[in-house]
Amino acid sequence: MVNNCRNHPNPYIIGSVIDDPDKFFGRESLFQFIEDNLRQRVKVILLHGQRRIGKSSILAQIPKKVATDQFFFVNSDLHSSIHKPLSLLIHELAQDICEHLVDDFDLEQDYITPPSEQELDKDPTIFFEQFLPKVYWVLKSKNLVVLLDEFDVLTNPKSRSEYRFFPYLADLIKRHHQLFMIAVMGRNLDDLPTLLQVFGSPPYQEIGFLDEFSARRLITKPAQGVVTYEINAINEIYKLSAGHPYFTQVLCSTLFSRARENQNRRIYSADVELIVKQAIEKAEAGLAWLWDGLPIPEQVVFSAVAEAQKIAISQHQTVPEHPLSFLKRYGVIQTKSLYEAAKRLQRYGFVDDTERRVKVRLVQHWLVQYHPLRQEILALQTLDQDRTNPIYQLATARYQQGQIQKALVLYEEVLQMNPNHFRALLALAHGYLQVKNFSKAVEVYTRVYKVKPVQSKEWFLRSLLNYGDQLIDQQAFTKAKRPFQQVLDIEPDHQLARQKLEHIKAKIAAISNQPITPVHTPPNRTGLDMGKLAAAVAIISLVGVGFYNVSTPCPTSAQKVFGITCIAKSSHTNTSQSISRGERSLFPRIDNKTKIDLATEAFGNQNYSEAANLFNQAWQANPNDPELLIYYNNARARQRGFDPFTIAVVVPIDESESGAKEILRGVAQAQHQFNNSDGLNGRWLEIAIANDGNDPAKTKKIAQALVKDNSILGVIGHNSSDATKAALPVYDQGGLAIISSTSTSSDLNSFDDQNNVFFRTAPSNVVLARKLADYVKIKAGLDKVVIFYDSESVYSKGFKQDFKKDFEKLGGKVVREIELNNPKLNITKEVKNSLSKDQVKAAMLFPGVKSVITSMKISKANTNLNNRVQQGLKLFGGDTLYDKTIWQERGKGVQGLTMAVPWFSEAPQAITFSTAARELWRGRVSWATATSFDATQAFIDALFKDADRKQVLDRLRNIHLFPSDTSGFPLQFTDQGERESEPVLVEVVEGQFKFVSE
Predict the structure, then answer these.
(1) Nearest Cα to Cα of residue 25 among 209, 184, 210
(2) Percent helix, strand, coil in the chain (nearest 5)?
(3) What is the C-alpha to C-alpha distance for residues 271 and 377, in angstroms, rounded to an integer?
(4) What are the residues facing 145 on neighbouring strands?
(5) Residue 174 main-chain phi, psi, to 5 deg
(6) What's the predicted TM-score (pTM) here?
(7) Which residue in 181, 157, 191, 166 sits closest to 62, CA to CA?
């Protein structure tokens, strides 16, 4: 029966320690962890968790829930001990022990007394030589467990006892068989290496959020019989609190008070929505405490996560923008401290594993309301003040004395030390405007306007107008359009800017002396004859998909249709038909074809608004298709009014549609992220897709076409090492930067070392082979191997040579080298001979792209031998074998194949990117997606206002991307264009790839 709740006290407890076991919910596994360790006589246990997570309440519950038959627990709080000397700390600990003994054993007050602070100051040994033996006599056979709250307070550099208390306590615990310690702290143990070292790396456990079952009990049990929560209300509370006990109590307390005031006996989801603001006000003290405990970089990143999350929710985006990328919109330059702040917030549990969502939605609401990002970023200029302030003050003095050029140099120096010193940034912009360096003024004001739009708007507009006039005077009319268009973006009704644009239009028309007619692009062509397409579909319907070998590559003269069968390429196919920005789809299609044809036709007719809408609809219907997302972003980029930045990506659609899409997913994800962040100075990114089919002859023609197109600033590609090798001389001659995300052959490099145009984001064969050789020889302990390789593949031959060199250097021996492309190859015989005649236990599979299927047959023969006769060969391979579809379809039963690959989604460093990619593409992504994302990010980082090929190439040589900007690993290039990174190892386990931890 439900009682009247009007006079019922609020049963929810906010901010106080919960002593009553009936009002404490969950944590069963934590208490079991503590009991198991105590019973195994583990002397020190450490617990850590964020503020307001319930640490003190857990300490209060330990004596009631853990091994009371063997242990006696004493609580001691250190939260106000930062300035206390060692003697006072020991005295207060002794005092706490005495009080607990007197209360629990009914002793007289003076039965046992603590040593005084003065006595301990003279002789600290009194505590363990005289006092503790008396305690043990009272306890008899029980052990003493000291529960220390706020233990990490004493790690503060201001603590008077930091360097004495911990060693003293550690020594005490070693000396006394009956003495144990459980310490609780509010900091992550990764930040306290000294403490862990002093206590000998004890077991530790994080105090995290409540599991959903416990959280639901905390919501419903305290008010049982008074009010009832509807299931949707419980779900909404859990969504807002994520199981954080403090915020769960806050929400429920607020709801209960409201229900009591309105005499409601049932609480609905609508009630939860109504009390969010009130709940935030009630939690203000706890929230302020949480906020005040964070350093400035963490505060700024935390606010950025909350703001980006709010935008993602309002725009129905599945993945919010990463906070460090989002901060760029506000003019914030990424620094090491901001990068580390994002990592710490994730490690402390404030944000999720992707670093893109505040875990507790109630906290996210509070951050948006009380700590708006535009306000919080201003605190960044206070960082490193000891170094920046003297220079800033000197710069300001020089400025006021009229020595503006000297002041500008000093302001630049301040920004070198702290790129987010916004007062220096604003002064720099004003200075450039005053000395009439309008180009630099616009550049700096563009960033200042993001930081302080209201304060800087008038000056920014003045800089743009002056810069535009300067360009008109120089007769750079096309370039002059941009600053005036930027003025209109800020003030659409700015009459002077409109007049200037009309003036420029008239000047350009006068120069050309002829009307400008739009370029007409032919309607969409697939390059596939419709008669042949119909015939292919008919064959599929008659024969059935199951009869076609989806993994078999087509001959050079043919292309695969719908991933099922090969047909001859159309004779009229030319290079222009193999490149598209959105004028045609380069993939054969059945599903969604009508909408895609309409989209490509609209794009070809320069109706970019309609094209963007149709491409978006097509992508929403097939969210795993990267080509559609790229064309959608291209159409959006062309709507902007500014010429987009353009880079090309070359993929092998004719040979491998799935492989091509893996590369395009990485490119599309980076482009989508960049364009959603409003690009750079209003210019967005456009991607031209080219299909070379991994055919060296076609590759050269594609490369020539891309070099000839001056709008293209760089190229991502090609897929195979053979294709890249064929194209590289063309890019060398044209001075066009190329970043390969998948070609790993060590033979790839520019002919001119001083003007290298070749870079790659995947490690070379040299690095991959070294990783594999180390693992095979040292970890697996194998001394002899055979190698299967493709003598016609640049990649395969190079990998074989690099592996052999490293393996033999370690003392291993390559017994035989077997050519996969030998038409007389007897696979079963070679496998048997390797085992019986050669007496080897391992085979290395290094196929080229076109000999992967033969490797599958070797694995199958090895598996059959393993099942029937004897133990088969242990298999190892290179990155060409990393194809999940092939192994699931063709390699069933293969266990333990171990490969060296550039990247893997389950590697710890890759989790953030792989989670975001999985949400965008609705499935797992491969290493080719990750390295292609990185290649695109490298080009994006090299872009700048009015970028040209030479400048992009120069900037690529000096880029340095943090892991938050990439798929999880830092990115910078050596002088030879190689990426400084370490490959990872993966193993095939029941058709799935698993990370090999070393």
Answers:
(1) 210
(2) 55, 10, 35
(3) 35
(4) 73, 180
(5) -65, -40
(6) 0.61
(7) 181
Q: What is the pLDDT of residues 701-724, one digit of tens each?
A: 999 999 999 999 999 989 988 899
Range from 369-378, 572-581, 794-803, 807-816 carrying the lowest mean pLDDT: 572-581
Q: In the structure encoding, which two tokens stand for residue 469, read together?
A: 């006039």
Q: Are 73 and 152 in contact (CB under 8 A)?
A: no
Q: How confident is the model at residue 886 (pLDDT cuts 50, 70, 90)?
A: low
DSSP 919-931: HHHTS---HHHHH
Neighbouring residues of 602: CB distance < 8 A, sequence distance ≥ 6: 608, 610, 611, 614
DSSP 322: P
Question: Rounded to an integer, what distance in angstroms lies between the CA atom of residue 123 and that of residue 462?
Answer: 75
DSSP SS3 for 376: helix
Which amino acid is it at 69?
D
Cβ–Cβ < 8 Å for 727, 649: no
Place of tokens 């980006």: 308
Residue 527, pLDDT score? 37
Given pLDDT bands bounded at 50, 70 and 90, which one contains residue 360? very high
DSSP H/E element including 63: helix 55-65
DSSP state of 9: P
- Please say whether the beta carbons of 732 and 750 come within 8 A: yes
pLDDT exceeds cutoff 60 at 103: yes
In DSSP terms, 237 is beta-bridged to: none
**Bridge partners, residue 68, by sequence:** none
DSSP string spanning 100-136? HHHHHHT--TTTS-PPPHHHHHH-TTHIIIIIHHHHH
Q: Which residues of 912-936 are buried (b: 16+ CB within 10 A; e: fewer)?
A: bbbbbbeebbeeebbbbbbbbbbbb
Phi-psi label, residue 210: left if phi above 0, alpha if psi -120 to 50, beta otherwise? beta
Phi/psi for 487 (5° steps) reads -60, -45
The token pair at 775 is 């693992």
Q: Which tokens hold the place of 884?
A: 């999940």
Which strand (E) or helix (H) includes residue 989?
strand 984-989
Q: In this prediction, what percent of the chain has a pLDDT beyond 70?
A: 89
Residue 581's identity, in one-letter code, is R
HSE toward the beta carbon, residue 510, CA cutoff 13 A: 8
Any residues with CB less than 8 A from the CB of 382 and at least 6 apart, and which?
Answer: 296
pLDDT tens, residue by residue, 635-663: 999 988 778 999 999 999 988 898 999 99
Structure confidence at residue 761 as a pLDDT band (50, 70, 90): very high
Nearest-CA neighbor of 936 among 920, 914, 956, 919?
A: 956
Output the 3-class SS for 328-372.
Answer: HCCCCCCCHHHHHHHHHHHHCCCECCCCCCECCHHHHHHHHHHCC
Tokens 């690009």 -> residue: 679
The overall average pLDDT reported for the chain is 86
